[in-house]
Design a protein that fits this description.
5 helices; single chain; flat; mainly alpha
């Protein structure tokens, strides 16, 4: 029964990761320069007025990085399945959980480095000087929103965000 549950959890995790990879490749979902819901670089076409040639360059950069992201996403799914298996039926092995948590943190770091590499490539290889300036304005706005939210949390006027796992 435990093996069957692990297989089901693994399949569900892989499906979720597949959807995430697809969304990443399509430029939807997640956060990037544009903030929540704008995708890794989803605001580009709308806010930066990319030309069709620039859109093709962005797509090429995203495709070039897709394989490495797919590998990391598969490893994330395996890690999540292992965590689910390690904690099934109320089990708690702090050493095993710590090892899986450390692995997950390393995988998340790899995803962040890849995402920032993609954004750097697009910023330096695709954007014009005017588009870079606009991207920096958007980045500053995002930083301000984060700082304002942090201030509200610190003063108790806004509830702290919760994590959904």
């Amino acid at each position: 029964m435990k093996t069957k549950l692990t297989v089901v959890a693994s399949v569900l995790a892989l499906l979720l990761c597949g959807a995430t990879i697809f969304a990443y490749a399509q430029g939807h979902g997640g956060e990037g320069f544009g903030g929540p819901g704008h995708g890794p670089m989803g605001f580009l076409a709308r806010d930066l007025n990319l030309t069709d040639a620039q859109k093709a360059q962005v797509k090429s950069i995203m495709q070039a990085n897709k394989a490495s992201m797919k590998t990391v996403m598969q490893q994330m799914a395996q890690n999540r399945a292992a965590m689910l298996a390690a904690t099934a039926n109320g089990a708690y092995d702090p050493v095993k959980i710590q090892a899986l948590a450390t692995q997950r943190a390393q995988l998340e770091a790899a995803m962040t480095v890849n995402r920032e590499s993609v954004q750097h490539q697009i910023y330096t290889q695709v954007f014009t000087a005017d588009q870079q300036a606009k991207a920096e304005q958007l980045r500053a706005q995002q930083i301000n929103r984060i700082n304002e939210r942090q201030q509200k949390i610190a003063t108790g006027t806004e509830a702290a965000p919760t994590s959904h796992q």
